[in-house]
Specification:
The complex is a heterodimer of chains A (141) and B (623). Chain A has 141 residues and is of the alpha/beta class. Chain A contains 7 helices and 7 strands. Chain B has a 6-stranded mixed sheet, with helices on both faces. The chains are: A alpha/beta (141), B alpha+beta (623).
Chain lengths: 141, 623
């Protein structure tokens, strides 16, 4: 069954997809830099009345814990990436590579850019995991 | 009106005469400055048959209208001539502080003609211009020359120095010109042209100012551009990690050449040579060109070991590849040492590294032997052989005399099938972005007016997604691994990018804001109130066409717009594994959108529309 993006169910399914992914197990192995929070900016016309945060405790190729969080909580994570709904949809469709998206200003990063650019393989593997989550987008019937 | 002083110097080295010549207002606006103005002056002088290393090959050193202002990234200037490496239009540009210094001396540029019978230098100091004997400097490297001249001219203001090293003196075909110690007119061998004229250095120091047409708007625009740059992630990445910041990202998209273009992926290699690694190991500090808030230049030190290097200029991304990944060697200290020698001797580190990587490949395949190399082993994975080759080529000693010709010339002389191991277009080695991972870039390499070049257009930035520009006809995202629909993008990327080398503006700043912002800056400086993005693009088209016509006059045809066999061979691994650009399809589409005939010449009607009817008449009458 497809899960709405963003939603608590989607975050849980993403968590599972990460831990079932051989690509992330390998590509994410060097990631020892703490929690990465992803934030979908508020967009009331789609029913996202407040920014929707996803807290992902990633460590050495494993997602140790995840939950929905507020934007405020997300900003306490070592890495926090903000973006509009449409941009995250492009990321999930593999139309926007997240590190490129940050370079272009389409996604905003709060955190150490040097660590991000050194871990592009982990980012790439995370996107592959996201594509495996059966997703119902809010702007699609 | 502002931006321009409105005059340049013609320095006749054979006669020892210096003449002041005007630049007409309509010429300024039509060709902007820098390499565009150089192309116009080159055409007017009609010396396209000149021997690149002979007395008739004039050397153009020109600033642009925003050079020397406080517009961020406006430190640049261009040097142009017929290239001794490629035999066609040659140009390069650099940042540093030479352009503002020249403008402060009250001129927009210098055209050097003829050859001096003995080594000389041109000195512009406190309103005086003179040629001085430079015999004592001949034989010194660029660092030594810069230090010596700065000692000699010590005063309250430090002079800016352009110089050549031993490579330029020895007519190495890819010799470069240094501005002080950090900035280089690297590509197409302009240092060899300077060497052929026995012009060791140009030194300038002035107190003047650049005229600004609308100082109030100018001040506000400078402030807003600095703010935009401060918020842009590419600027942040360049500031923190230098031009080598995204090597791992490059590896992921199939951008990094490995082992003379033979392999497609090695993250250990990119990680060892990347900007973040340099920051953690050898970086002392970041440095900026004049009026640049980004500060992408690296100052490094290797404190000990076999590649011990004193505090000085560090390698850019291109050198980390040409003396790193291209040799399949991951010793960053070795790259730093190679970079120092390239700088000191004054050679383009791209062509030098690529020519040496070609020699490594030849050695691996038995086409070159220990006997050829003077006993030096050239082994992928090791950098010592490359450093030994640098010493030889700068002095044209032994095999260095062969390597000093560049990869095309060296392969032609060596034969033995070694031509298939080069990766050059029109004689210029492909820079360190593998076109098999970026097919639009492959097309731009094929059509660039100075041979394989990533800086004569914005295609690399657009296709790699480092920059995106609204309302200029571009799509939001381009798939690098596809050849579909790239011709239109490349044409736009060229038309937008070509004028940057004429203004002259650093491309990195242009990654941080939109063309509307740039146009507002140009208007404020020059006073061209009706200057628009459309006129900017049309100027870019005009300059591309003019340089193409010059190349046609120097013998370029459609047959020269091609990818080398190395690049038409699929990679075994990495993002671009198994794929090569569709050369024919892209070129066919490009010829249509650009308006070129079957011989590769711009159509007369296209030239007329671009305001180049006179050029069209000459071209189509002669060829």
């Amino acid at each position: 069954m497809a899960m709405k993006f963003p939603s608590d169910e989607w975050v849980a399914a993403f968590h599972n997809a990460i831990n079932e992914s051989p690509e992330y197990k390998e590509g994410g192995k060097p990631w020892t830099f703490g929690v990465t929070a992803l934030v979908v900016n508020a967009q009331p016309d789609l029913g996202i009345n407040e920014a929707y945060g996803m807290w992902l405790d990633l460590h050495e190729g494993v997602c140790r814990e995840s939950h929905h969080c507020t934007a405020e909580e997300a900003q306490t994570a070592p890495f926090c990436i903000f973006g509009d709904y449409a941009r995250w949809k492009q990321v999930i469709h593999k139309e926007l590579e997240p590190v490129k998206g940050m370079m272009q200003g389409k996604l905003k990063l709060k955190g150490n850019l040097q660590i991000i650019v050194r871990n592009v393989k982990a980012a790439q593997a995370l996107v592959t995991c996201a594509t495996r989550v059966p997703t119902q987008f809010l702007d699609e019937p | 009106m502002g931006g321009y002083v409105g005059k340049y110097l013609e320095v006749d080295l054979a006669r020892g005469e210096i003449t002041e010549l005007p630049i007409a207002a309509e010429v300024q606006r039509k060709y902007l400055g820098g390499s565009g103005l150089a192309a116009y002056l080159f055409f007017q002088r009609g010396k396209w048959a000149a021997d690149p290393l002979g007395p008739d090959n004039d050397l153009f050193i020109l600033t642009g209208p925003i050079s020397g202002t406080l517009i961020p990234g406006s430190s640049r200037f261009a040097v142009a001539a017929r290239s001794p490496l490629t035999g066609i239009w040659g140009e390069g540009s650099a940042g540093g502080d030479f352009a503002p210094s020249l403008k402060r001396c009250g001129i927009d540029g210098i055209v050097v003609v003829g050859q001096s019978p003995k080594p000389v230098m041109l000195v512009l100091d406190e309103g005086k211009v003179e040629l001085r004997d430079a015999s004592e400097l001949w034989g010194l490297d660029t660092y030594e020359t810069t230090d010596r001249l700065r000692e000699t001219m010590a005063g309250k203001k430090r002079p800016s120095v352009l110089s050549i090293g031993q490579a330029g003196e020895n007519l190495v075909r890819f010799a470069c010109i240094a501005n002080n110690k950090h900035d280089f007119i690297g590509r197409t061998g302009m240092g060899a042209v300077m060497g052929s004229k026995r012009l060791k250095a140009v030194v300038c120091r002035g107190e003047g100012t650049v005229p600004i047409a609308d100082p109030v708007s100018y001040k506000a625009i400078c402030k807003s551009l600095v703010q935009m740059i401060g918020q842009a992630v590419p600027a942040q990445a360049l500031k923190e990690m230098g031009t080598d910041s995204a090597m791992d990202l490059g590896m992921m998209i199939g951008d990094i050449p490995i082992a003379n273009w033979s392999l497609g992926e090695d993250f250990e290699l990119s990680n060892a040579l990347s900007g973040p690694t340099m920051s953690e190991t050898y970086l002392k500090r970041g440095l900026a060109c004049y009026a640049c808030p980004i500060a992408c230049r690296r100052e490094v030190e290797v404190p000990d070991g076999p590649y011990k290097t004193p505090v000085g200029p560090g390698p850019e991304y291109e050198t980390c590849c040409s003396f790193g990944t291209m040799l399949n060697q991951k010793d960053l200290a070795g790259v730093i040492k190679s970079n120092e020698w390239c700088n000191r001797y004054g050679v383009d580190s791209i062509t030098a590294g690529c020519t040496i990587a070609w020699a490594y490949d030849c050695f691996a395949k038995g086409l070159l032997t220990l006997e050829d190399t003077g006993g030096v082993e050239l082994k992928f994975g090791e950098v010592d052989g490359a450093i030994a080759m640098l010493h030889k080529l700068a002095k044209r000693e032994g095999i260095g005399d062969l390597l000093a010709e560049g990869s095309r010339g060296a392969a032609k002389k060596l034969g033995r099938g070694s031509e298939a191991l080069t990766a050059e277009i029109k004689g210029l080695e492909i820079p360190m972005h593998d076109p098999r991972g970026s097919h639009g870039l492959a097309l731009a390499y094929m059509t660039s007016y100075r041979g394989a070049c990533h800086k004569a257009h914005l295609v690399e930035a657009i296709e790699h997604g480092l920059a995106s520009y609204a309302d200029v006809g571009l799509e939001e995202n381009y798939e690098g691994l596809s050849s579909e629909g790239k011709a239109g993008m490349v044409r736009i990327g060229e038309d937008l990018g070509v004028p940057l080398n004429s203004l002259a503006l650093c491309e990195f700043e242009m990654w941080c804001y939109q063309f509307d912002d740039l146009i507002r800056a140009i208007r404020a400086v020059t006073g061209w109130e009706d200057f628009s993005v459309e006129e900017y693009r049309k100027t870019g088209e005009r300059l591309w066409l003019l340089k193409r016509c010059l190349n046609n006059l120097m013998g370029v045809t459609r047959a020269d717009d091609r990818l080398p066999a190395k690049i038409l061979t699929p990679l075994p691994d990495g993002a671009a594994a198994g794929l090569v650009p569709d050369e024919e399809m892209m070129l066919r589409e490009y010829y249509e959108v650009r308006g070129l005939d079957e011989a590769g010449r711009p159509l007369s009607a296209v030239l007329e529309q671009a305001g180049l009817a006179e050029v069209g008449q000459v071209l189509h009458q002669r060829i």
